[in-house]
Structures are given as structure tokens and as C-alpha cells.
Amino acid sequence: MRFIGITGGVGAGKSAVLDYIRDNYNCRIYLADNVAHLLYEKGTDCYKELVKLLSESILDEEGNIDKKKMAAAIFADGSLLDKVNDIVHPAVREYLLREFELAKESGEYDFFFVEAALLIETGYKDLVDELWYIYADPDVRRKRLKESRGYDDKKIDSILESQLSDEEFRKNCDVIIDNSGDLFDVYCKIDKILEGYKCH
User: 128: which residues sit within 8 A by CB, 6+ positions away?
Assistant: First the structure.
């Protein structure tokens, strides 16, 4: 079973790539953001550490972490972001490695995919068999973000500036998939890569 990381900037179309893979291949797919939200659930070690760091002011009336309150607390004190990441990223990584081992032991799957914008920054390059960079032209990404999420140019500029450069993504990834145009071309490239692995 091959362990593949999928990364790329916001608006590059990682979801469309993963939807195709999910529908056409025998695989497990995990989104790091979704795993993080699982780990925020009441009673988990991650939950306890976050509440200890940020205080109970981030909780809703039922005692669950309110993501908006948590984001506001982090925004109010810039020094907290690194501390939160030091709690969340290792917990996500541990969860994913555990799920990978379970999937591998089951012998049921050909591929195990993990998607996150921060795979390179959080050290997944050393864990996965290969990293895929989903690329899209900046103008295409900008258009998608305006249409699908209603973002304005100022918000898009802020997001793009906070992410790795195209050069950094290319330098650290093994496979580059250009998702600027026709999805059919993207699907063909995915098929060529994954069917090639299944033949070996």
C-alpha cells in the first residue's frame, strides 16, 4: 500500500483531485483539517491541552471547543499560534500514522492519501512514499476563490502570501499535477501514475 501526500495552495483544486481518486481507486483518504476537528472533541488529550492553553473561554455552552472563539483567541495573541500548532500537528500526525498502520495491516487498500496545505511545513515528506503538488495558475486560483468562497482580493492576497511559494512546493514534491485547466487532463495524469503503481 502506497502512502501519498497531497498538498498545494488554496484554490488549487485539491478537493477535485481527491474526489476523483476516491471514486475510482481502492484507497483511504484523510484530510488533515478534518482529523484536527476530530481531535478537538471533548475528552481527547488534544482538547484538554488546548483548553489548558487557551482557557475555557474557547468553549461553547455544552463544553465543546467553539472554533470561532478559538480562532479569535489565537488572533488576539499572535504568540499562541505556534503553541496551538505544537499541540495539534503532532496529534494529527500520530492519528494518521495509526490509521495508516491499520489500513496497511488490513490488506484491503492499494493507496493511503493524506491531504493538507501544510504537509511540507509539518514534516510529512519524511513519512510518505511521495508528495504530490496540485498546482494551479494564480489567476485561476483567485477566480475560484472569488466564485466558490466569495473572497475579495484583499483576503486572497493575505492567504496567498501566507502559503509556500510555487518554487518551494516544486522543490519538495515528487509529482506535480497542473490543475489550471481541463479536469480530464488531470484525471488522465492521475490514472497514468496510479495504474502504473498497481502494475508493479
Answer: 3, 4, 5, 114, 119
Q: Which CATH class is domain 1-26+110-200?
A: alpha beta
Q: Which long-range contacts (CB under 8 A, 24 or more apart) does 89-96 make?
A: 89/118, 89/122, 91/36, 91/39, 91/44, 91/45, 91/46, 92/32, 92/35, 92/36, 92/39, 93/122, 93/123, 93/124, 93/127, 95/35, 95/38, 95/39, 96/30, 96/32, 96/35
pLDDT, tens only, 60-84? 999 999 999 999 999 888 889 999 9
Q: At the top level of CATH, which class does the domain 32-109 belong to?
A: alpha beta
Q: Cell digits for 185?
A: 487532463
Query: CA 19 to CA 190: how far, in whole Å?
Result: 12
pLDDT value at 160 more than 90: no
Can you give the residue ranges of every domain in the chain? 1-26+110-200, 32-109
Q: DSSP strand E in 22-159: where?
A: 27-31, 111-115, 130-135
